[in-house]
């Protein structure tokens, strides 16, 4: 009830065991320098006060947002907040074999980058009129995965103890996020750019950490780059599923 009313957010939950000593100071220092033009050694306030003012820590303990963004190894204490990726040889999961498998853990930026790398490694690259020495073009534009993976990390339901799943099949790619669309959002509404902020702290930092612009525009950019995308709001199983159809492979 409180979550639906916007009074409680999953990214505000305390990340037990992750206190101020868990901060990746070198990474955080680089963030401060880039976006606030200052360094830790130049602060005119205690570090904990700064983190509290940034809404990342409370009573000496990082919240989920602060932990995922800036601690050294958040996945040790928050093991379900990762991306679990598998590439299958066929069109279903009812098989004993897979082509590739990886768990993306660590800070959110690392999870994002590793997820993109998994996709680019396991999809086809087409020559598309380029020279034989070129890397080729990805069969689906990279911006599609940048937008949809960032969207999954930022907007998943952090009250649900489950991983994001990234599944690559012969005919499609699926990104499955814990949590159906919040409140009155529908698939039709998000395709038109409507949004409802589920994790406001993460959203406030996302544009400085990930290629994320907010305002509900990510879905629209993905569709503009590659229209063959289906969105499924699975309320019965409390999931949001994105299905990206793969083009036929030449030859």
Tell me about this structure.
The protein is of the alpha+beta class and 251 residues long. The chain is 33% helix and 20% strand. It has helices at 25-36, 47-53, 64-70, 74-77, 108-122, 142-155, 187-191, 200-209, 217-225; strands spanning 14-19, 57-58, 61-63, 83-87, 100-104, 125-126, 137-138, 164-168, 172-178, 229-234, 239-245. Strand 8 (164-168) and strand 9 form a beta hairpin. Helix 5 (108-122) packs antiparallel against helix 6 and helix 6 (142-155) packs antiparallel against helix 9. The protein is globular. The mean pLDDT is 92.
Strand order across the biggest sheet?
A: 5-4-8-9-11-10
What is the H/E string? Answer: EHHEEHHEEHEEHEEHHHEE
Instruction: Tell me the strand percentage band.
Output: 15-25%
Output the radius of gyration.
Answer: 19 Å
CATH class of the largest domain: Alpha Beta
Describe the main β-sheet briefly.
6 strands, mixed
Please state the average pLDDT score.
92
**Span between termini:** 53 Å
DSSP helix fraction: 25-40%
How many domains? The number is: 2
Number of H/I helices = 9
